[in-house]
Amino acid sequence: MKSIKYLALPFLSVALVMTGCASRKPAATTTTGTNPSTVNTSGLSEDAALNAQNLAGASSKGVTEANKAALAKRVVHFDYDSSDLSTEDYQTLQAHAQFLMANANSKVALTGHTDERGTREYNMALGERRAKAVQSYLITNGVNPQQLEAVSYGKEAPVNAGHDESAWKENRRVEINYEAVPPLLK
Amino acid sequence: MNTSRKHLLSLALITALSPLASTTAFAQLYLEIAKAPDQAPKIAIVPFNNDNGLSPIVETDLNRSGRFTSSSKNLPANAAINQIQASDWQAAGIPYVVTGQIKQTATGFEVHYQLYDVQKQQYILNELLNVPASRIRQAGHMVSDAIYQALTGIPGDFSGRIAYVLRNPATPAERYTLQIADTDGEQPKTVLSSRDPILSPAWTPDAKKIAYVSFETKRPAIYLQDLSTGTREVLTSFKGLNGAPSFSPDGQSMLFTASMNGNPEIYQMDLSTRQVKRMTNDSAIDTEARYTPDGKSFIFTSDRGGSAQIYRYTFADGSVKRLTFKGSFNARGTLSADGKKIALVHRPSGSSYKVAIQDINTGITNILTPTSLDESPSFSPNGQMVVYATREGSRGLLSIMSTDGRFRMNLPSEQGEVREPAWAPK
C-alpha cells in the first residue's frame, strides 16, 4: 500500500497552476544525459504567497448548508472508456459552480485520470476528455472559463495501485483541485 | 570484463506457449508459426580461446532468436580456430559449430571467430572484429548478428538498443528515468531522470536523438534530446495534450497529438521550420500516430467509430481508411520496417489487452502474447522480434517475443516497473 503514496505524491501540487504566474514559480530541476544539464522549467506553484492571495478571495460566499456536503466532494468517477457524468456528479458540480461563481478569484485545476487498461497515449486523451466534460459542465453552469484548467494525467497517477475492478473504478476520475482549498471546505 | 557493470535488468528466458496456444483466439494461422522450437537447428558454441565472457553472450542471443538452439556446455568434442573435426559433430547431430579466439590489443580486443557448416565441411564465416575493451559485450552481439544473418539471410538485431522508462518508487526525486540498454538489458544508461512521468520515447531515424513526453512542468510537453551530448529542446508545449511523437523516415518531420484546438488531433511538425499542420479533424480522440516506413502515410488510433481502432491516413489524397475490425479496442499500432505487419494492443474480450500482429495485406490478425495488460509494442529493426511492456503479478516488465511466437524473454527490473520500450532503429 506504500506505493499508493508514491503514486499520488508528484501530483499533490498539481492543483496550483494557472498560466501567468510564471515569475513566482520555483524552478524544477531535471538531469539529462551522461553530462547532466540543468533545465529550468516553470514548475507548479507551491508558493505560500500565492496561496494566501487566492485565499483572500475565498470566503464563506457560495457555501450554503444545502451545498456544503456536495462541495466536500472533489472527485467524480466514470465508467470504462466513458466521459459521461452521472446525476450525482451534476449535484457535486453544481455546488462547485455556485462556489466558483461566488469566488471569482478561486481557480481550479481539473485533472483527468483513467484506469491502467489500454495504451498510455489513448488514456492521456481519454483523461482529457473527462476533464473537459467536467470543465464544460461547470462553464455551462456559469463558471468563468478563466477559473478552470483541464489537465490530463492519463493512467500515470492512479490513487489505487491495484490491478482489479475496484482499483480501476477508483482510478477513473476527475479531481477538482482548488488552487488553494478554501478553509470552509476543509 | 568490467565487473563493476550494473545489472539493472535481470534476464530470464522463457519458453513461450506452444504455437497452437498462441493462435487459439483466431482461427487463421499466422504464417510465421511453422516450426516447433525443438526442431530448430543446433549451434555449438565452443568457448573461445581467452573468452572474456563473450561466448555465453552469443549462446544466449542465438537461443532467444527462436530460430536456433545453442549450447556451449556438454559439447561432444573440442575445437578451435581452423581446427574442427567434422566427424566429431556429425555423429552428435550438430550442424553448426562456432569457434573463436580473443587477443588483447593496445586499445582493446581483436575477436576472431568462425562459423563452420558440419554437413558441407566448410567455414561459412571467418571474421575479425576489433573493439575497445569497454565494448566486449557489443562484440558478442555483433558475432550473434553475423551468425544469424549467415544462417537465415536476415540481419540480426542482437547488437541493437532499447529505450524504456523505469519507474522506481524508492527514489522520489528521480522516480522516473528514461534509460537505454542493450537488447539483453545489459549496460543500461540513464538519459533523463525526473520526479514526474516520462512516456512515449521515440527515436529519430538515425538513432542519434530521442523524443519523449515529460510532465516535469506538471503539464505534458514533447522534448527532443541529443543522446551524445545530453542537450535537449522543447518541441511542443501547446495548451492541452502534447503526446505520441513519431518521426518521419527521412527525419524531416514529426507527427504528434495535441488538443490545442479543442480535442485530441494528429498534427505534423516540419522540424526545420517548426511549422505545425493539423492532419485530422473530428470530434473523436485521434492519437498514437506512426509513420509507415515509406513515409507516404501514417497509422493512428481513433475512437471515431465508437471504440478505439487503428486507421490509416494517406498523405497524397488525405484519405482515411479503417484497418482494424476485430475486438473492442485496437490501439497504438506500429509497423515493421518492411511495412508488412502492424503490431498493436488488442482487446479480444474482458479485461485482457494483448499484443497482436496484423498482416497489412490480408488483414489477418493473430494474438502474439500469452500475457494481458500489454502495452507499447515495438518491432526490432528486422521485424523478427517485438518488445512490449506487460505485467506479471505486481511486476511491470518488458517482454521480447519472437514474432513467430516461439520464444519470449522477460526483462524485469528489481528497481521498479519497466515500461514504454522503443527499439532503436538501425
From TrEMBL, chain A:
Origin superkingdom: Bacteria
Alphabetized CDD domains for the sequence: OmpA_C-like
Keyword Cell cycle attached: yes
Record GO cellular component, one term: cell outer membrane
Topological category with respect to the lipid bilayer: Lipid-anchor
The keyword Cell membrane appears for this protein: no
UniProt KW keywords: Cell cycle, Cell division, Cell outer membrane, Lipoprotein, Membrane, Palmitate, Signal
Cell compartments where the protein resides: Cell outer membrane
Signal peptide positions on this chain: 1-22
Cited PROSITE patterns: OMPA_1, OMPA_2, PROKAR_LIPOPROTEIN
Coiled-coil segments: none
Any single biological process term in GO: cell division
InterPro entries from the UniProt entry: Bact_OuterMem_StrucFunc (IPR050330), OMP_bac (IPR006664), OmpA-like (IPR006665), OMPA-like_CS (IPR006690), OmpA-like_sf (IPR036737), Pal (IPR039001), Pal_lipo_C (IPR014169)
Chain ranges of the OmpA-like domain: 65-182
Alphabetized HAMAP family for the sequence: Pal
NCBIfam families per record: Pal_lipo
Quaternary structure annotation from Swiss-Prot or TrEMBL: The Tol-Pal system is composed of five core proteins: the inner membrane proteins TolA, TolQ and TolR, the periplasmic protein TolB and the outer membrane protein Pal. They form a network linking the inner and outer membranes and the peptidoglycan layer.
Its biological purpose: Part of the Tol-Pal system, which plays a role in outer membrane invagination during cell division and is important for maintaining outer membrane integrity.
Family (UniProt): Belongs to the Pal lipoprotein family.
Full protein name: Peptidoglycan-associated lipoprotein
Organism: Acinetobacter oleivorans
Lineage per the UniProt record: Bacteria, Pseudomonadati, Pseudomonadota, Gammaproteobacteria, Moraxellales
UniProtKB/TrEMBL annotation, chain B:
Signal peptide start and end residues: 1-27
Primary location group: periplasm
Entry annotated with the keyword Cell division: yes
A GO-annotated cellular component: periplasmic space
Annotated compartments: Periplasm
A family per Pfam: TolB_N
InterPro entries, sorted: 6-blade_b-propeller_TolB-like, Tol-Pal_TolB, TolB_N, WD40
Keywords: Cell cycle, Cell division, Periplasm, Signal
GO biological process terms held by the UniProt record: cell division; protein import
Highest taxon of the lineage: Bacteria
Residue span(s) of domain TolB N-terminal: 30-122
Family: Belongs to the TolB family.
Function description: Part of the Tol-Pal system, which plays a role in outer membrane invagination during cell division and is important for maintaining outer membrane integrity.
UniProt cross-references to NCBIfam families, sorted A to Z: propeller_TolB
Subunit details: The Tol-Pal system is composed of five core proteins: the inner membrane proteins TolA, TolQ and TolR, the periplasmic protein TolB and the outer membrane protein Pal. They form a network linking the inner and outer membranes and the peptidoglycan layer.
Name of this protein: Tol-Pal system protein TolB
Organism: Acinetobacter oleivorans
Designated gene of the protein: tolB
